[in-house]
Design brief:
This protein is α/β, with parallel strands linked by helices. It folds into two domains: 7-384, Rossmann fold (3-Layer(aba) Sandwich), CATH 3.40.50.12780; 406-501, GMP Synthetase, Chain A, domain 3. Strand 20 (381-390) and strand 21 (396-401) form a beta hairpin.
Length: 505
């Protein structure tokens, strides 16, 4: 089947009067209204001097405005959505790293990103919600309007979306995703899940993350479906939203599914009133026991899928029809997927190696990082950094991560980033941040520290120091003080296996 190659094509499917974007206690925005909003946004940005391939940082709360602003901005320029809970240092790193030309914030925002944008000489664009015209309707203003830009709708090879992936041995890498990458990926997800005009997705995923943007928003809209945009995940409000939205499906990470299950017993009537076609899980592996509990609670299949930023999200998925194998992340679902050996050879079923992918949804390469690209691509295949196997039925299973990224319930954390913050504390001589097992989140952030002579800070002081510079999910939950950090055979600090060595298993 043919795939859209731009967001403009992708958003052309729904009937003008059909609902596209909805939200709690808000009238729906129709497809006709959404397309008109995107047209106005493209024109407004061009008038501000922002056009194709100019980077626009977006710092907005989760909800319908974030969803529609992303679509509008990415249709004209390059959207760079950022976690609104970041501190000033983090905003400065990410916005300067991608060379953002402008920042979009909500009217009345007091985000530290605003001062950073001023320091970096960026244009400040203010979004004013206009929900009388429907969920996600807004207007934009900019005091520093005008200037040169490439006007009009973005084309297939223009960069639609730019995100950072967490780096372990170096700074986080910039992942540019083209209009073609994200449009093809949205089509892949829609095909996997058989989306259509009768579908409504209850979105609880953050919209600064590839999972929420692609599976939560673009995929259902590419197939004329409806998206119900919540302010973000809240287990206490999930079932009230479910009653209002009347969804046919939702997608989440395993920790969210587990929190929803704890409240499902008291909400059986709502579940019965709104039968789901399926439930989807991605971003981190789901324990088979939880899969079974979700399926019995909702009376619907749990579709586990496997994605990453560099693939514009989805790489593999268990099928809607056909066998779903607990513990497997499913079949290739869009790109080609293979298992590669150490010397670049493709392996046979059952052999363990690195999972590699290729296809129109895969990034053409990291930005300004020839060394990373040289190691990430082999014979045209992108190396995921994940280790796994493929069985005789071509179902893919993950056996471990080759990288040292900490996966805290689907939130990916670069240990190096936390290292560098802790090293700024005057009492710290040496530090290594690593993953510590956690029964609900899978992994949690921990740090081993050697103090300078005579220094005596306690664990709370160091955690508070981190909390001033890092988003809450990156702050170490456990700090261990050591005389000496265990080294590997080559004298290097080793993150992998450190939790076990220190008895934190």
């Amino acid at each position: 089947m043919s795939r859209s190659s731009t967001l403009r094509q992708l958003m052309s499917t729904g009937a003008d009067g059909a609902p596209a974007v909805t939200a709690p206690d808000t009238a729906p925005l129709s497809y006709g209204g959404l397309r008109a909003l995107v047209d106005r946004t493209v024109a407004a940005l061009n008038g501000f001097g922002v056009g194709r391939n100019d980077r626009v940082a977006i710092v907005l709360p989760n909800g319908p405005d974030m969803a529609t602003a992303f679509i509008g901005i990415a249709s004209a320029a390059t959207a760079a959505p950022l976690n609104p809970t970041y501190k000033a240092d983090e905003f400065e790193f990410y916005m300067s790293d991608v060379k953002a030309k402008a920042l979009v914030v909500e009217a009345g925002s007091n985000s530290p990103a605003i001062a950073v944008a001023g320091k970096l000489g960026m244009k400040l664009i203010v979004l004013q919600p206009d929900h009388a015209k429907g969920a996600g309707a807004f207007s934009l203003t900019c005091e520093a309007a005008g200037g040169d830009c490439v006007k009009g709708y973005a084309e297939a090879d223009d960069v639609a979306l730019i995100l950072h992936t967490s780096g372990t041995t170096s700074r986080p890498k910039i992942v540019p995703l083209s209009q073609r990458n994200v449009s093809v990926s949205a089509g892949n997800i829609a095909e996997t899940l058989a989306f259509g005009p009768k579908d409504c997705g209850l979105n609880i995923m953050p919209l600064f993350h590839i999972h929420g943007l692609m599976a939560g928003v673009l995929a259902p809209l590419s197939a004329s479906g409806r998206v119900f945009c919540t302010p973000g995940f809240n287990a206490l409000r999930f079932f009230a939203w479910m009653d209002e939205a009347a969804p046919t499906w939702y997608t989440a990470v395993p920790t969210m599914h587990q929190a929803i299950l704890t409240r499902a017993g008291g909400n059986k009537e709502i579940i019965a009133r709104h039968p789901l076609r399926f439930v989807r899980s991605s971003s981190s592996s789901m324990p088979p026991q939880v899969i079974a509990e979700v399926e019995s609670t909702f009376g619907a299949p749990l579709i586990e899928s496997y994605g990453m930023t560099e693939a514009s999200h989805q790489m593999a998925s268990n099928p809607l029809k056909g066998a779903r194998k607990p513990g497997a992340v499913g079949l290739a679902a869009g790109p080609e997927v293979a298992i590669m050996g150490e010397n670049g050879e493709l392996l046979k079923p059952g052999e363990i190696g690195e999972i590699v992918i290729r296809g129109d949804n895969v990034t053409r390469g990291y930005e300004n990082n020839p060394a990373a690209n040289a190691s990430a691509f082999t014979n045209g295949w992108f190396r995921t950094g994940d280790q796994g196997t493929m069985d005789d039925d071509r179902y893919i299973s993950l056996t471990g991560r080759l990288k040292e990224i900490i996966n805290r319930g689907g939130e990916k954390i670069s240990p190096r980033e936390v290292d560098e913050v802790l090293m700024d504390h005057p009492a710290v001589q040496q530090v290594v941040v690593f993953a510590m097992p956690h029964e609900k989140l899978g992994e949690e952030v921990a740090a081993a520290i050697v103090l300078r002579d005579g220094a005596k800070p306690n664990e709370k002081e160091l955690r508070d120091f981190c909390a001033q510079r890092l988003a809450a999910f990156k702050v170490p939950r456990k700090i261990v003080f050591l005389e000496q950090i265990p080294l590997g055979a080559t004298g290097k600090l080793q993150r992998i296996g450190l939790a076990e060595k220190l008895g934190l298993g």
